[in-house]
Amino acid sequence: MENTIVIFKTNKDFQKELQDLADYILSKENLLAIKVKIKFVKQGRANINSRKITIPIWAIDRGLHFLCYYLLHEISHFICFDKNLDYGHHFRFKDTERRLLNEVGIIPIYKKAYIKQLNGLNNKCLYNEKKYLKEEVGL
Fold first, then answer.
1. Cα R_g (the chain), whole angstroms
2. Residues of the chain by 3-state class (helix, strand, coil), percent to 5
3. Which of 114, 19, 26, 117 is nearest to 65 (CA)?
4. Are 45 and 75 in contact (CB under 8 A)?
5. Residue 5 located in a structural domain
6. Furthest-apart CA pair in the chain: how many Å?
7. CATH number of the domain residue 85 falls in
8. Is residue 106 pLDDT above 50, yes or no?
9. 3-state DSSP call for residue 75?
10. How confident is the model at residue 57 (pLDDT cuts 50, 70, 90)?
11. How confident is the model at residue 11 (pLDDT cuts 50, 70, 90)?
12. Helix, strand, or coil here: 9?
């Protein structure tokens, strides 16, 4: 154990990585930039007027795949709004979200507007809401 190095990522580390991913996607989509923030909030949101995405700090605990999903979910709102597709969680939104997730190797399985599970391209489970709640939260 004396040679073990433990590296802890801070909220700012995650925020920078998410901002870099957001910048890359929006550039690829030819859309205006947005600002990504991780905050102590109950739920995240995409604020179209201020061009800001807020991601709740609790999303970090659910793992990198969930965090990536959360960001891409919010970015999908900007893409749909900016391209006049629709606003909300309609089929064009889900098509956009699914496309972005597939580009990073994630296949979403939905429960209405939000996901209940994230799979990899090999169909291996990367995140499961029920499993998370049972194991991590103790419900």
1. 16
2. 45, 20, 35
3. 117
4. no
5. no
6. 57
7. 3.30.2010.10
8. yes
9. helix
10. very high
11. confident
12. coil
- Which range of residues forms the domain containing residue 118? 11-137
Residue type, 65: H
Question: What is the count of structural domains for the chain?
Answer: 1
What is the rounded CA–CA span in Å between residue 105 and residue 112? 21
Residue 106 bridge partners (DSSP): 120
In this prediction the pTM is 0.87
The tens digit of pLDDT for each residue in 117-133 reads 999 999 999 999 888 76
Q: Which tokens hold the place of 124?
A: 């291996």
Render pLDDT for 61-85 as a digit per residue (tens, 0 to 9): 999 999 999 999 999 999 999 998 8
Q: Which of 133, 107, 128, 134 is CA-nearest to residue 119?
A: 107
Domain assignment present for residue 2? The answer is no
Q: Tell me phi and psi for residue 90, to 5 degrees.
A: -80, 180
Residue 96 tokens, joined:
């956009």
pLDDT at 87: 77
